[in-house]
Amino acid sequence: MIKRTITTLLLLCSTLVVFSQEKFTISGTITSKAKGETLIGASIKAGNQGVTSNEYGFFSLTLDKGSHTIEVSAVGMQTYTETITLEKDTRLNIALEDEIKSLEGVTVSAQTRGRSITNPQMGVEKLSTKDIKNIPVLFGEKDILKTIQLLPGIKSAGEGNSGFYVRGGAVDQNLILLDEAPVYNASHLLGFFSTFNSDAIKDMTVYKGGMPAQYGGRLSSVLDIKMNDGNNQDYNVSGGLGLISAKLNVEGPIQKGKSSFLVTGRRTYADVFLKLSNDSSINRNTLYFYDLNAKLNYQLGDKDRLYLSGYFGKDVLGIGETFGIDWGNSTGTLRWNHIYNAKLFSNTSLIYSNYQYNIGIRSGGDDFDILSRIRDWNIKHEYQWYTNSRNNWRFGLNSIYHNILPGEVKASATSSVNSSALQKRYSWENALYLTNTWKASDKINLTYGMRLSSFSILGEGDFYNIDDEGRVLDTMSYSKGEFVKTYFYLEPRLAASYVFNPRTSLKASYVRNTQSLHLISNSTSSNPTDKWIASTNIIKPEIADQVSLGFYRDLFNNNYELSVEAYYKSMQNQIDYRDGADVFANNDAIESQLLYGKGRAYGIEWLLRKKTGRLTGWLSYTLSKTEKKINGINNDRWYNARQDRTHDVAIVGTYQLSRKWTVSATWVFYTGDAVTFPAGKYRVNDQTVFYYTDRNGYRMPDYHRLDIGANWTLKQTKKRTSELSFSLYNAYGRENAYIIDFRDAENDPNKTEAVRYALFKFIPSISYNFKF
């Protein structure tokens, strides 16, 4: 009897425990009520529990059974609050309304989402197009790539250049994604514009080395850009007209509330002004670019959604009939979202990417074209599993087939140049990845994961063995589809945060990345003719291991935020050129021109940001060092990498003068680039020959510049907006050195003079923007 009573009590207690721990899941999609766009990074909170919406607006939050008050907020949106009673798994799709602003504009909220105190993810920066709207840039064109160069740890690749360096990495070590499609050359007009039209962009996230496991293939950073979906509630037309470019954006519903389209186009018209000249050496020249973004999306039902997006862009530069070059990117992404249940979300993507350039020569008896191309076919399948309120899993696979044409010459029958082609290179890149974000306690949060990557070199073609002097010793031939060599790597990822209080946290991370595609360049800045090559039996994938430590603090009632991050990155299988190398010679064995070694990069980054009030902006400062050590260069000693800069400062400010007027300014300073200057000279057959010693042993002069801008809102109603934007690039007219050339002095050939050339002085601009 006593035994039966005890058993009954235990069963009752067990039942009570199970009942008290009974949980249900609330899930759904967060959208904008005005446009129907899904909202990335919206905050969903219930008491001390909370999550953010993923890149497709989906969220899943597991709570105890009972009554809960749900609070949903997003940047630029009114906060939504609802009390619900959870007695089963519940689907809740929420449409947020746009934020109502004071007519006097007394208080202005920052558009940035800022940095999360609790999230263990380090080295991440987030911007929206609203963040860059008022920031003055070259030619007045709002530019995402120019704006991120104002953030700590991200450095400009040069005056007016859209290329950038991240934590000591080279330009090619940044993975740039547009709706998941890789973009291999993200610049127009030799870098003065980026390929990304801000009117087509919804969201942008930069990972500076501590990227999650779903990203791979580059050593330094990931720039993940998401295009707008298109308005599924109403039709909108917007655009702008500037001094050298014009753009137009059209979007609207195909079936209201269920499907939409977006088409955005942009073109420069500098070539139109050239034709106005009476000089035939000018009016026959060509100089322009265009780009086109397009997107369709369709909601198949409550659980399925399809997206189809594409980008097409091209630059054309021609000098009369004798010389012409065009280059451009094209991408396409087909995505299928599926919600299995309240806790399991999946995305499947088919992705295409192509970058190519063509150079045409028509001079005298020569008539030929030079072609180069890199083309990818890519499939990615991923799951997000929200197991409970403390765990979120992300896992999937990615497979990419690379087809690279390094160079091909097509000549006419009468040309003095013969047709020829470097061997095409084929490779297959694969990855399996797994990430878990775990709230271990109220103070400790962890993100850990693993990426298993492989890179297979495929035939057909010849591959080589090369001695220490760069001479080819042996040639090995492979047939089409035959495996030449496969590299396997495990890439662990670990990040942790310790929350001292709701305003302060400490974070640490470790990440390993590998990179199997490499950019070969013969200049100090990015050019469209830079050549992508894949790893071979000799050129090994690059490897980087990075550790980081950061301190984060919200100040003055969350009106300011302060962050300090320090990092150390060691790199293996780094590539540099032999002294006197000609990497653009017609030579399949490009390995004969290269040397390999190791690198290191370390630094500390400060960011102080003001997020609210009439005055918003930030101050960033980076102190860093980047070096290489490669046998055969600089007497086998450490030397400065091309991208090494000691100091980098940016000050950004925007002030809301009134409802109609906003003024802004940016000031930048950075240490001059590391360069190789001649150490002496000698005469051969009455010709001066300079000789060089230390690789990158000298510095360009320090660089600094002030840009100012203003936006004047001409009209603003619920459906119509128009404004004028003014900017002045390099406001105090500093002639920053772009090139320093060395030559014999005119009066005394025994003396050498350095001639300094500047690119820009004062560049004013004005543009008109509208929306209806």
Q: How would you summarize what this structure contains?
A:
This protein has five helices and 51 strands. The protein is mainly beta.
Kindly describe this structure:
By secondary structure, this protein is mainly beta. The protein has 2 domains: 2-96, Immunoglobulin-like (Sandwich); 223-771, Maltoporin, Chain A (Beta Barrel), CATH 2.40.170. The protein contains 5 helices and 51 strands. The strands form 11 sheets. It has a 22-stranded antiparallel barrel. A hairpin with an 8-residue loop joins strand 39 and strand 40. The protein is globular and about 90 Å long. The termini are far apart.
Per-chain topology:
Blueprint: H1 2-20, E1 23-32, E2 43-46, E3 49-52, E4 58-64, E5 66-73, E6 80-86, E7 90-91, E8 94-96, E9 124-127, H2 129-132, H3 144-148, E10 154-156, E11 164-166, E12 174-178, E13 181-182, E14 187-188, E15 193-194, E16 201-207, E17 221-227, E18 236-241, E19 245-255, E20 259-268, H4 270-274, H5 280-283, E21 286-299, E22 304-319, E23 323-339, E24 344-363, E25 366-388, E26 391-411, E27 420-421, E28 425-439, E29 444-458, E30 461-466, E31 472-478, E32 483-501, E33 504-515, E34 517-520, E35 531-534, E36 542-555, E37 560-577, E38 594-610, E39 615-630, E40 639-640, E41 647-656, E42 661-670, E43 674-675, E44 680-684, E45 687-691, E46 698-699, E47 703-716, E48 721-729, E49 737-744, E50 752-758, E51 763-771
Parallel strand pairs: 1-7, 1-8, 12-17
Antiparallel strand pairs: 1-4, 2-3, 2-5, 5-6, 9-16, 10-11, 12-13, 14-15, 16-17, 18-19, 18-51, 19-20, 20-21, 21-22, 22-23, 23-24, 24-25, 25-26, 26-27, 26-28, 28-29, 29-32, 30-31, 32-33, 33-36, 34-35, 36-37, 37-38, 38-39, 39-40, 39-41, 41-42, 42-47, 43-46, 44-45, 47-48, 48-51, 49-50
